[in-house]
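tool=predict chain=A
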Amino acid sequence: MSDCLFCGIAAGTVPADVIYQTDEVVAFRDLHPQAPLHALVIPRKHIATINDITPEDQTVIGEMYLAAAQIVGEAGLSESGFRTVMNCNRQGGQTVYHIHLHVLGGRQMHWPPG
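tool=predict ok
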């Protein structure tokens, strides 16, 4: 989608601090980090919300989590712990309508998240 911020980042036309990328996913640092490590992992394919994921998207969703594991591993946070979360729609806290996996670590996480 031409007006999607995250599609622009995936295409390389919108600048971002990219920390990981493959043919299917891109990960970059969040502009408003909520933890010492706060990355967003997105599929290159535009998928607006979790509700829009189809059976054909299973592989790319798996790649998003594999990317998260590699990012926290490289940051040295695999053993101490981290959080991954994907928001869906307005009441779920989604603000950009292109699915994105938040990867947070480097501090104690609290529950419930709020």
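The first strand starts at residue 18 and ends at 21. DSSP finds two helices and five strands in the chain.
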